[in-house]
UniProtKB/TrEMBL annotation:
<keyword id="KW-0479">Metal-binding</keyword>
<dbReference type="InterPro" id="IPR001128">
    <property type="entry name" value="Cyt_P450"/>
</dbReference>
<dbReference type="InterPro" id="IPR036396">
    <property type="entry name" value="Cyt_P450_sf"/>
</dbReference>
<dbReference type="Pfam" id="PF00067">
    <property type="entry name" value="p450"/>
</dbReference>
<comment type="similarity">
    <text>Belongs to the cytochrome P450 family.</text>
</comment>
<dbReference type="InterPro" id="IPR002401">
    <property type="entry name" value="Cyt_P450_E_grp-I"/>
</dbReference>
<protein>
    <submittedName>
        <fullName>Pfs, NACHT and ankyrin domain protein</fullName>
    </submittedName>
</protein>
<dbReference type="InterPro" id="IPR050529">
    <property type="entry name" value="CYP450_sterol_14alpha_dmase"/>
</dbReference>
<dbReference type="GO" id="GO:0005506">
    <property type="term" value="F:iron ion binding"/>
</dbReference>
<dbReference type="GO" id="GO:0020037">
    <property type="term" value="F:heme binding"/>
</dbReference>
<keyword id="KW-0408">Iron</keyword>
<dbReference type="GO" id="GO:0016705">
    <property type="term" value="F:oxidoreductase activity, acting on paired donors, with incorporation or reduction of molecular oxygen"/>
</dbReference>
<feature type="binding site" description="axial binding residue">
    <location>
        <position position="509"/>
    </location>
    <ligand>
        <name>heme</name>
    </ligand>
</feature>
<dbReference type="GO" id="GO:0008395">
    <property type="term" value="F:steroid hydroxylase activity"/>
</dbReference>
<feature type="region of interest" description="Disordered">
    <location>
        <begin position="559"/>
        <end position="584"/>
    </location>
</feature>
<keyword id="KW-0349">Heme</keyword>
Length: 584
């Protein structure tokens, strides 16, 4: 109605005010119309949200959801001012962390919501029950467009290899979808995921873990030789833990030659991690030459390691578990055979794909550092965790080891692990219905539409995590995962899919078992052998939740974490066991 009157208003005003004044008046009128439209939509939307929280209220207004023949409702559209912009998340650019936790943000919706951004639309799903349903429905989803985006932007996968993803219409299950024409050896989505599951959940896990355990103990023993009985200052806890932990893990995973051939790889590894958003956001090389220089170096390093392994590996050099010193894990050798059969996968492409897997280890290393920061900040928590660690210590010929099964039964140690992942894990779970619409409770999301869930929003949901007489939801408090009269039983079951640091559904992170072992074992080694005194700057360090630090997984601190460290005086020697029983 208002827009129909514009020509008449213009003809009346032009003789009196002139063209410029009329233009300004019309722009103001249009802006006012858009704003009034937005406020009406927002009022209806907020009323709709309130109705969803109070099921006894009858939904009304323009946001009444459309219902299809099966009784499913279409999610409402999040209100926006300008039709051509939609809900353009400009606030995200200045502070993603505060943006997604704003109570008026679409990430805080208790029901699925459609969000229009420019000419695109995405569906946001939050809330424990909705997330549970999303993970169940994930069997009908594909992540290929998003995997392809990350591999191409961040990990440099060449275009000819990316086309293999484009051509894969076979689905992610063992049996290809009806009508699929892709050859079995070209099923890249299924085959790559299967290789990860075999390695990290199947027969590959045990030999890998024993190498990680041995390397972690050797790293700790080397630190004990460097650190004396008197307090010594260190500039940054995260670097102090992260650099040797990354070295130990990479040697366990890839064998010794990746780092021997590329002495700066660990430093480049962390520099790449810090620049991940530069690559994902498509910042031109002209504006970030150092970041792209790092990307080039890490990919060249992996390629050089691959070539060395190809030149030197012989089947007779493999161990009983088929691991070898050149490839490290059989996993990489098997992937070489898998990729060799795929169109478009030359040596550059295989190096990109393998580095994408190697990079993912950064989450468990970062989580270990955050856990140590929180433990050493709190003397009471340190005493509780240290008592559990000391009870699990084993005396072996090489020195001290730990009973892994006992660590995995330790309530306070596990509670610290779970709370660190709740507070410090920030990433987007992205899905898309491939062959059918997705039903989320009584909501329907059309197929081929992007669906997004966010760990940060799920882990800060006060309806789930904030109970009477408990600390605020944004405060580190591991006791929220302890139950029983004596608070001595660890459990995450009460929170359902609201605790989702590894995602969920059929594509839940296959590395979660290894990650938990690695985090608990690293913490145990440090807590048993060292005293650490967090300096003032380290005690109150914040997360880097800027545009460049948010959404990568485990967060980095916004600054350095200064500390003092000394060798722990007279740690308990542990139970005496035979050498063959040292590893659990």
């Amino acid at each position: 109605m208002l827009f129909d009157l514009l020509p008449h208003i213009q003809s009346q005003l032009e003789p009196q005010l002139g063209h410029r004044a009329v233009a300004c008046a019309l722009l103001l009128l249009i802006a006012t119309a858009f704003w009034l439209r937005y406020t009406a939509q927002r009022h209806a939307y907020l009323q709709f949200r309130a109705d969803q929280l109070d099921q006894t209220t009858q939904t009304s207004g323009s946001l009444r959801p459309q219902t299809n023949k099966s009784g499913f409702k279409a999610p409402p559209t999040f209100p926006y001012v300008f039709p051509f912009l939609g809900s353009l998340p400009l606030g995200y650019l200045w502070g993603p962390g505060s943006f997604v936790l704003n109570p008026n943000n679409f990430f805080q919706s208790p029901h699925p919501v459609r969000v229009k951004i420019l000419h695109q639309e995405v569906y946001i799903v939050q809330g424990a029950r909705n997330l549970n349903r999303l993970f169940i429905e994930s069997v009908w989803c594909t992540a290929i467009p998003f995997v392809k985006y990350a591999l191409g932007r961040a990990f440099g996968l060449p275009a000819k290899a990316l086309r293999v993803y484009d051509n894969d219409d076979s689905g992610g299950l063992a049996a290809p979808l009806p009508g699929s024409k892709v050859r079995p050896e070209q099923r890249i989505d299924y085959l790559t995921h299967k290789s990860l599951v075999t390695f990290l959940e199947g027969p590959g896990l045990s030999p890998l873990w024993h190498r990680v355990e041995r390397a972690t103990l050797q790293t700790t023993a080397a630190l004990k030789k460097q650190i004396g009985p008197d307090w010594e200052h260190r500039a940054d806890l995260m670097e102090f833990v992260g650099t040797p932990s990354a070295t130990a893990f990479l040697n366990s995973l890839c064998g010794p030659y990746l780092l021997q051939l590329n002495p700066t790889f660990v430093r480049d590894y962390w520099d790449f991690d810090r620049n991940l958003q530069t690559y994902l956001q498509g910042i031109p090389r002209l504006f970030a030459p150092k970041a792209y220089g790092v990307q080039k170096r890490v990919l060249a390093a992996v390629k050089a390691w691959h070539q060395h392994a190809r030149d030197n590996y012989t089947p007779s050099g493999a161990h009983d578990n088929s691991d070898d010193p050149y490839w490290g894990s059989r996993f990489f050798r098997d992937r070489q055979d898998m990729f060799d059969k795929m169109d478009g996968f030359d040596h550059d492409a295989v190096a990109s794909a393998d580095f994408g897997f190697i990079w993912a280890a950064r989450n468990s290393i970062g989580a270990s550092s955050w856990a140590l920061l929180e433990i050493y900040k709190d003397p009471d928590l340190l005493a509780r965790v240290r008592a559990e660690v000391d009870a699990a210590a084993l005396q072996v010929d090489e020195g001290i080891a730990f009973d892994l099964d006992q660590l995995l039964r330790s309530p306070w140690l596990q509670a610290v692990y779970a709370e660190i992942l709740r507070l410090r894990m920030h990433f987007f779970v992205v899905r898309m219905g491939d062959r059918r619409d997705l039903s989320i409770q009584d909501w329907i999301i059309p197929k081929h539409k992007v669906v997004v869930a966010l760990t940060t929003a799920a882990h800060m949901d006060t309806a789930v995590w904030q109970h009477e007489d408990q600390p605020p939801v944004d405060q580190f408090w591991p006791a929220r995962f302890l139950t029983g009269p004596a608070q001595n039983v660890f459990s995450v079951k009460a929170y359902g899919d609201a605790w989702m640091p590894y995602g969920g559904g059929p594509r839940i992170c296959p590395g979660r078992h290894l990650a938990k072992r690695q985090i608990l074992y690293t913490v145990a080694c440090m807590v048993h052998d060292f005293d650490i005194d967090m300096m003032d700057g380290g005690k109150h360090v914040k997360e880097d939740l800027s545009l460049w630090g948010f959404g990568n997984g485990i967060s980095h601190p916004a600054g350095k974490v200064p500390m003092r460290i000394r060798r722990r005086p007279n740690p308990p020697p542990g139970r005496v066991v035979e050498k063959k029983n040292a590893a659990s």
